[in-house]
Design brief:
The chain is α/β, with parallel strands linked by helices. It is about 45% helix and about 10% strand. The strands form two sheets. It has a seven-stranded mixed sheet with strand order 9-8-7-6-10-11-12, sandwiched between helices. Strands 1-2-4-3-5 form a five-stranded mixed sheet. The protein binds glutamic acid (GLU).
């Protein structure tokens, strides 16, 4: 598509601000900076408060728009808003029985957490995994708020999950669990097209989203014309949108590309710009990891390692990613891939330019961050890096592209799907042919006018105009818009890093960039008057 030219001066080498976590860090978060194994929600709160402290003065200055307001009241209002953002509004645990295919009864536990209601509906995935618990969904709901604000998508944050290992259940069992979980959430007004809109996450896919939508349409949503907008990430024939399935991976490629194309940022970590001479290792080969590998491979990057739970592959000549995707589709595992060798090493710590953790949270900790040899870490997973590890990586001058920005492509495409559902029309259906014709007619009118003036020049579209003219299918429009969203957010984060003199601390920059929008939405809603 289009590239930005570098908009930055060389990022300022001033580490002092990044570590200026002063006295205002809440008491229960004090140990998180050094903790080997922090509670997940406390870890996200810690990142939030760390960034919020740097912004406090600017927030108070912003309240200068109320000339009558006393300084203590301004401070108090800022504190209350930060407290609101620092806590989850509502967390639900539900327990329900199912009868399994083999006739046995089983109790199932599910959760849904709502972070803040400053934007409605809320948004966030549903995961099926054995480590799902209340703290995990709470942490992930915070992250969803920061993520949606980071890419300027108008949703609040939520997350849900069911504590099961989906591999141990038949599709019929899974359908029963999904439908019952949906009903339990609906009964409590926890989800709905205007309340909270789930999506796939770890252990779920379009299939579960179809069941969820169907359960709503057949029950509580029977007369709701917007019923399909209860969930995103649906299959195309069920109200989904083209490009949603690959969107998280595409966004991760684009997020990385934005930094990789920028001379100043690359100079900061002593790398050349561009993908061509780069090597990468991807942890996870599910939806997120496999699409990430596909897009970076297509960009010219050599993917030398893939890490999965049951096996890792290493090939210094570069793994044939399209062939591996085919292999996984057929065999449901990367094991037995004939073209590359299995490796018993922990590839997380192998030498490469870019490491993509695309599996799960708290992978990089104070115990292992020192061993990382990559120059860039692009966080495809949510919360893969603990604060103690984050500090080690920053000190090693590794550029961490943080989760709340890096993997926001998924929820961005979800937003497009949501718009498609509530508008009841797919993108481009009504206007694209007319727009295409308009470009052709403008060019031919110009040619015609020149000819009338005696000039025999045919006006031809340049490459960019031709590309825009041809971008008219739903898939192309979604891909274009997704890239644009990632580009503008990257620029916002780069500028924030510069303004707050954060050096390589992109995480704090991304949090600040997000918190501003949440702060202003809450402040202007009058909630704290
Ligand atoms: N589960 C994805 C995430 O963590 C997508 C969320 C959504 O589309 O609502 O970003």
């Amino acid at each position: 598509m289009f590239r930005i030219v570098s908009i930055l001066k060389t990022p300022k080498l001033n580490y002092s601000n990044a570590y200026r976590f002063a006295h205002k860090m809440p008491e229960h978060l004090k140990d998180i900076a050094t903790s080997k194994n922090p509670e997940f929600s406390a870890m996200i709160q810690y990142y939030f408060h760390g960034a919020a402290q740097l912004m406090e003065k600017d927030m108070i200055d912003y309240l200068g728009k109320y000339p009558q307001m006393k300084p203590e009241k301004k401070q108090n209002r800022v504190n209350v808003i930060l407290d609101m953002i620092g806590n989850a509004s509502c967390c639900l645990e539900i327990n329900f029985p199912i009868i399994r295919d083999d006739g046995k009864y089983e109790m199932i536990t599910g959760y849904r957490a709502h972070h803040t209601y400053h934007r409605m509906p809320l948004k966030g995935g549903i995961r099926y995994a054995m480590d799902v618990d209340l703290d995990e969904v709470k942490a992930l709901s915070y992250l969803m708020t920061f993520k949606t604000a980071c890419v300027n998508v108008p949703f609040g944050g939520a997350k849900g999950g069911v504590r099961i290992d989906p591999k141990n259940y038949t599709p019929r069992d899974l359908q029963r669990i999904t439908r019952r979980y949906t009903t339990e959430l609906l009964k409590r007004l926890m989800i709905g097209p205007g309340i909270d809109v789930p999506a796939p996450d770890y252990g779920t896919s379009g299939r579960e989203m179809s069941w969820l939508a169907d359960q709503y349409q057949k029950t509580f949503g029977y007369s709701d014309i917007n019923s399909l907008a209860i969930v995103t990430g649906k299959p195309i024939h069920n109200g989904g949108i083209r490009g949603r399935e690959s969107a998280t991976g595409k966004g991760i490629w684009k997020a990385t590309d934005m930094f990789l194309s920028d001379e100043d940022w690359m100079k900061l970590i002593s790398l050349k710009t561009g993908w061509q001479d780069k090597t990468a290792i991807v942890q996870g080969f599910g939806n997120v990891g496999s699409y990430t590998a596909k897009f970076i491979h297509r960009a010219g990057c050599k993917v030398i390692g893939i890490i999965e739970l049951d096996c890792s592959l290493f090939d210094e000549k570069g793994i044939d990613i399209p062939a591996l995707i085919e292999h996984k589709k057929l065999n449901n595992t990367i094991k037995g891939f004939p073209n590359s060798k299995e490796s018993t090493k922990d590839l997380l710590f192998e030498k490469c330019d870019i490491l993509f953790p695309c599996a799960t949270q708290q992978i990089l900790t104070s115990e292992n961050a020192n061993k990382v040899q990559a120059k860039i870490i692009a966080e495809g997973a949510n919360g893969p890096t603990t604060p103690a590890a984050d500090k080690i990586l920053k000190d090693k001058n590794i550029l961490v592209i943080p989760d709340l920005f890096c993997n926001a492509g998924g929820v961005t495409a979800s937003y497009f799907e949501y718009l498609k559902n509530i508008n009841h029309v797919s993108f481009g259906k009504i206007s694209s042919k007319r727009e295409q014709r308009m470009v052709d007619e403008i060019l031919s009118s110009m040619t015609h006018s020149l000819q009338q003036g005696g000039k025999c020049i045919k006006i031809e579209p340049n490459e960019n105009l031709q590309e825009l003219r041809d971008c008219n299918t739903e898939a192309e429009i979604v891909a274009y818009a997704l890239q644009h969203v990632m580009e503008t957010s990257a620029i916002g984060i780069m500028e924030t890093a510069n303004k707050y003199e954060l050096c390589n601390d992109l995480r704090t920059a991304a949090y600040i960039w997000s918190i501003w929008k949440i702060f202003m939405a809450i402040e202007s809603s009058g909630l704290t008057m």
